Amino acid sequence: MSKFNFPFIKETNELSNLRKEVREFITTCVNNNEFTPSPDAWVFSADPSFSKKLGSKGWLGMSFPKEYGGHQRTALERYVVTEELLSSGAPVAAHWIADRQSGSQILRYGNEKQKSSIIPRITAGECFFAIGMSEPDSGSDLASVKTKATKTKNGWKLEGRKIWSTGAHLAHYMIVLARTSPASEKNRHEGLSQFLVDLSLPNVKITGIPDMTGQRHFNETLFDNVELSDDSLLGEEGKGWKQVVGELALERSGPERFLSHFTLLDSFINEFRNSLIYSGTKIVGKLMSEIQTLRRMSFSVASMLQNGESPETQAAFVKELGNKFEKMMIETLREFSNIVPLHEWPNQLQNLFEDATLRIPSNSLRGGTTEIMKGIIARQLGLR
Amino acid sequence: MIEELEIILETTSKILQKHVNHSLRQNIVSENTDILNLWNEIEKNGLPKISVKEKFGGYEIPFFSILPLIKIINNHGTPLPLSETILSNYILSETDINPPNGIVTFATDTKNLQIKNNMISGEILSVPYLNLSKNLLIVHELNNVKKAILIDEINGEIIHKKNFLAEPRYNIKVENLNIAEIRPIKNNIDFNFLGAILRSAQMIGAMEKVLDLSINYCSERKQFGRALSKFQAIQHQISEMAVELSASSAALSTITELGLSEKNSNDTAILKIRAGFAAGKIIAISHQVHGAIGFTKEYELSYFTKNLNSWRNDFGNESFWEEFLGKRFLEKNNKNLWEYLT
Fold first, then answer.
1. B339 and B197 Cβ atoms separated by less than 8 Å
2. What class, spelled out in words, does domain A131-239 have in CATH?
3. What is the ipTM of this complex?
4. Residue B127's beta-bridge partner residues?
5. N or C, which end of chain A is more exposed by having fewer CB within 10 Å?
6. Catalytic amino acids of A?
7. Residues of B numbered 220-279 whose beta carbons fall under 8 angstroms of chain A's beta carbons: which are they?
8. Per CATH, is B2-184 categorized as 3.30.450.20?
9. Is B318's Cβ below 8 Å from some Cβ in A?
10. Does 3.30.1490.190 match the CATH number of domain A253-380?
11. Tens digits of per-residue pLDDT, B320-334?
């Protein structure tokens, strides 16, 4: 069991000061009506001008090296900034994926040209990314992707379809997982490669898919024999599986796995504070204990990333626990309507609640399902 | 000190590995020479006084740093009140009372306690391993002053004995029992918080064992032509145990690092909530995946799950600490939740 430790990491004064600085900035933005806090904002609420503003504050690509326009700050500093943005429901969806995983992926595996042309734009909040993993026939079984890249005289030809590509309609690039050679019978993980695909290229078609809330963030992205230059390959040919697993650790361990609906909880408590003192101390305490434990664990994973470790399993722990917490939180608030009926809640709070209720099924699907998380953990326990 | 602690952890593991087995746990009485031998070995290595000040013959390693030791003791399912003795002796030592040799158990709770002429009367409740112990620590509040009371010759009427638990527990009624030492406790020593931390660390040690037992059993036991561990339904249940356990361990390491102060008293509440909740899940799942064998006295799983059941109720259950947390936050009207949490 020792490999699943989450060592305690202290929030230093420097980190607390950074936290304060971000919080003041957000308060000013809210006071100037620059945005309305919204739930699940890292998926749904995109505002390129807000992203640019964060870039100019130095809060994007924080841990990227200075030579590529980054700020060479720690993963812990980035953690503090993302927590503040998430807990306030700020419109961060435009840059979220680029800042969270694509940038790091390019820095780790990319060639010089890829790094120098893209990283500075991510850091400035001017270059957005979509994830190119799922396909119509490949969801949890990611190694079964059929999108194919074949070598041509000048580079590669990309053919296939990616789906659920959140934000692809706003994104400039997608990191696409594709087959570059047939899977060997023994190991399906061989023969996959990652490509850095410019979404403005000819023969890329992006079609929106409204989700059950009626909003658009999902897309289907069709690559109809897209001509890619030679240096579109990200990392090593055939090593795509190993690369994508590392990318998923970045994707799964962050505070968005438990703070997606924090604005709802915050408004709920502010509204009902007085009745909660009499009839809700227990439920509030329960939620607080879960959030604090998750923050502890997620912060610990950030420090593992900082130390260059590969906390894929720990990330699965955080995601699994975080998803469960968010579902429990919505249920807890719903049960409170026994004390104050839902239709008597202020309109804005009713909306937040109903919105969250609609969105919550997606939290344990995106970024890997509950079943996949449990499978990863079971493997580490030696069960499979 | 870290090196010293590591040596102690290693030595303890060796001693427990050698002496503790499931048949020892079936016979926790003072006449059992194996129990006595184990205690003597433990005492010879100074473990009961590990957090006692040097001037009283202890190692003076801070109580919060030795929580990994508490985990090890209970990971081995040691059928002796060593964890209780370590905490009792720490409190006595911090109160400037020289801890006695031998086992020192404590009263989890009391009722109608009266103190007169250096004698004590009333009900002393949920005392673990009273049958092995001569010494007893009672923490009692008198006129807003908390006091540590040491009894060195327990004598009383047993009013309830819990036989179904793994560790023996007693409620006793005492009348004019002599007090060996009584002293006001320092403000920073809160018995309820320390008890909650102790029980949580014990639970985590035991839960690690329960997880290991479940993994091993499911890997060996075959049904429908394959090991149980190859069924996805089983894998997912065991993963859930690991998730709950890792969250509890994370909460424990906060206390191991920060200790206990007014500023971080919420961390104790979080730890006890998390560990108690995890214990509930882990008890249920471990029994489910073990099938009928886990339900027998002969197999060791139940020793651990029975203890988990009693420890999660000691020093405040999840509801108690949830209310504590919720109240502390809600009654401070000036902060919103996020400001408060950060």
1. no
2. mainly beta
3. 0.95
4. B170
5. C
6. 251
7. 229-230, 232, 234-236, 238-240, 242-243, 245-247, 249-251, 253-254, 256-258, 266-267, 269-270, 273-274
8. no
9. yes
10. no
11. 999 999 999 999 867
